[in-house]
Amino acid sequence: MSHDVYALPANLPVPVDDGAADHLVGLELPSLVLESSLGPVDVRDFGVIYVYPRSGRPGVPLIPGWDETPGARGCTPQSCAFRDLYPDLGVPVAGLSAQTLDDQLEFAERNRMPFPVIADPERRLGEALSMPTFEIGGFTLYKRLTLVAEDARIVKVFYPVFPPDANAGEVLAWLRSR
What we know:
two-stranded antiparallel ribbon, 5-stranded mixed β-sheet, 9 strands, alpha/beta, 20% strand, Glutaredoxin
């Protein structure tokens, strides 16, 4: 079955706040260098890190059950919204998922991402911060959340994120309200 990675289907299940990110505000981002679409980067260097489960590729089937899993669908629309609002955010931004560097390079090139798209297949950031994950199709993936940091300390967490394509606008509104 074909699907449009750039559009959100109707009637996606809404994720619920399970409290799995409640501990993150106040934590310091670790000094952690990971590979990205723009080369090695340290996660401490970003003011916004949006964390997503897994971006799709046109023509590649979804993992079975993807659209039925709350919070799974919408990585590409979320990323494209951050791309489009990037000049207005005024802070360094990065996207991050547990996908491989090859996946992130393809995604960043196809979508003309102006900021790093970070590959964390070993979920090292998640381990350092005890970030929430879920299991699907034999993969352990990050649950969607967005971290806002000042001086490498997390000051705001958006979790759960829904709808994903509105998250960049919510982050921008929050940053402007400070």
